[in-house]
Design a protein that fits this description.
This is Protein polybromo-1. GO terms for molecular function: chromatin binding. It is found in: Nucleus. By secondary structure, the chain is mainly β. It has two domains: 73 residues, SH3 type barrels; 136 residues, Bromo adjacent homology (BAH) domain (SH3 type barrels), CATH 2.30.30.490. 10% of the residues lie in helices and 36% in strands. It is built from three helices and 15 strands. Strands 8-9-11-12-14-13 form a six-stranded mixed barrel. It has a two-stranded antiparallel sheet with strand order 1-4. Strands 2-3 form a two-stranded antiparallel sheet. β14 and β15 form a beta hairpin. The longest helix has 12 residues.
């Protein structure tokens, strides 16, 4: 078969997808073909595709040392960053931080994190404040972000794949409860950008607020999610 209305030099074949993360090829099982957009017609003579050596082989051989250096750089672990103290005139008993090192890496106010709760579940929260007490214990405070399953809704309501809802309830937790970092973006940010240091599976979208005292869901204001 061949596409109608295209020159032979403008027709290509694709049977695999390449994962940059795994650095591997994988066969495509299902191709999303739209018959209304492109019409296929029989060829006068069946085509026998022939594989050729990649035009990039020589380039890879020439720059293999540079590629090896880049791969090694990707394996380097994140360097420990200093704890950054934040002055707070309202509370002289505790020490507040703008940035703090945890077992899950460095976090700062405004970040979104995975939190291990008492029930063994893992939930998402935003960090509004980080502080340590005089006895050396460290805590953070911030609002929860809820999954669709945690919010009352009609059976027919649809959600985005990675959608969350900003709760009106804040929580205070020990800093050691943080088990990982994620990103929560406004709708406008989610459709056009991504944080480079967060994997795609850990990127979420939030455009609504859930008032737990009133069991009421409403759109976030024009300012969107809190930026610190």
């Amino acid at each position: 078969m061949q596409p109608e209305g295209f020159l032979e030099k403008d027709v290509y074949v694709c049977e695999s997808r390449y994962s940059t993360k795994a650095r591997a090829f994988k066969k495509i099982k299902v191709w999303n073909f739209d018959p209304d957009h492109l019409k296929l017609i029989p060829r006068d003579k069946p085509l026998e595709p022939k594989r050729v050596i990649s035009v990039y082989k020589e380039r890879l051989e020439k720059h293999k040392e540079e590629i090896a250096e880049l791969e090694e750089g990707e394996k380097l672990t994140e360097k420990e960053r200093p704890n950054v103290i934040l002055y707070n005139s309202d509370d002289t008993e505790n020490t507040y931080y703008e940035q703090y090192n945890t077992c899950a890496g460095s976090v700062k106010t405004g970040d979104f994190v995975y939190v291990a709760t008492d029930g063994g579940r893992q939930q998402i929260a935003q960090i509004d404040a980080i502080w340590s007490t005089k006895d050396g214990k460290c805590y953070f405070k911030g609002p929860w972000l809820l999954m669709p399953a945690e919010v009352p809704h009609t059976p027919t309501k649809l959600f985005y794949k990675q959608e969350l809802f900003l709760s009106t309830v804040d929580g205070t937790h020990p800093i050691v409860a943080i088990v990982g970092k994620c990103a929560v973006l406004d709708y406008g940010e989610y459709i056009c950008s991504r944080p480079t240091e967060i994997p795609e599976d850990d990127v979420y979208i939030c455009e609504s607020l859930y008032d737990e005292s009133k069991s009421l869901m409403k759109k976030l204001g024009q300012e969107g999610l809190k930026k610190i």
